[in-house]
Amino acid sequence: MNTLENVYEEYNRYIYHLCLKLTRNKAEAEDLMQEVWVKVVRYESYMAEVEHVKAWLTTIAMNTFRDRYRKNVRRSKYMMSQPETLDVPVLDLVPNNEPSTEKVVEQGVISQIVQEKIDQLDTIYRNTLLYFYVNQYSLVEIAGLMKVSIGTVKSRLFRAKQRLKEILMSDESSAEAILPA
């Protein structure tokens, strides 16, 4: 059973490093981490139902960071309407097309969750998905590898995606991480 103390002991360093990756600043990471643990304490009653504690904690951290980020963006938009108080180099106002650290970490977390769920699929479905989406084999190539017809490959691909969706949606923490907020 996961007690709050055990969860804190096991995942405190992980949460701190995740917060540090997101904020790129020690002080902000510590503030964010504190907010995350406050939420964990607030939702402690749900912990007994959580299958994957690390994914649950990651979701809380990501959502907390996202909320703080949105609040800061709203605040900075207000500041933008008052140029006389704005002391920022013009280049800082130019949008950056690089994905944010938040996006990169979030994509990594989602990728990890999806990979865990793919591993739960039957071997035939898992291999079909991996051949098609990861290795990017054509349907003809997959049919040759698996020694089945193209129609069979298509139906396996369809069933694999349906089953993966069911697995993802049945786990509340993975559904929250993957569905848009």
Automatic annotation (TrEMBL):
Note the Gene3D superfamilies from the entry.
1.10.1740.10, Winged helix-like DNA-binding domain superfamily/Winged helix DNA-binding domain
Query: Which CDD domains does the record associate with it?
Result: Sigma70_r4
Instruction: Look up keyword Isomerase and say if it applies.
Output: no
Q: Give the matching InterPro entries.
A: RNA_pol_sigma-70-like (IPR039425), RNA_pol_sigma-70_dom (IPR014284), RNA_pol_sigma70_r2 (IPR007627), RNA_pol_sigma70_r4_t2 (IPR013249), RNA_pol_sigma_r2 (IPR013325), RNA_pol_sigma_r3/r4-like (IPR013324), WH-like_DNA-bd_sf (IPR036388)
Key words, A-Z:
Sigma factor, Transcription, Transcription regulation
> Which GO BP terms apply?
DNA-templated transcription initiation
Q: Which SUPFAM superfamilies match?
A: Sigma2 domain of RNA polymerase sigma factors, Sigma3 and sigma4 domains of RNA polymerase sigma factors
Q: Name one GO molecular function term.
A: sigma factor activity
Q: Which family does it belong to?
A: Belongs to the sigma-70 factor family. ECF subfamily.
Xref: PANTHER family: RNA POLYMERASE ECF-TYPE SIGMA FACTO, RNA POLYMERASE SIGMA FACTOR SIGV
Name listed for the protein in its UniProt record? RNA polymerase subunit sigma-70
Protein source organism: Rummeliibacillus stabekisii
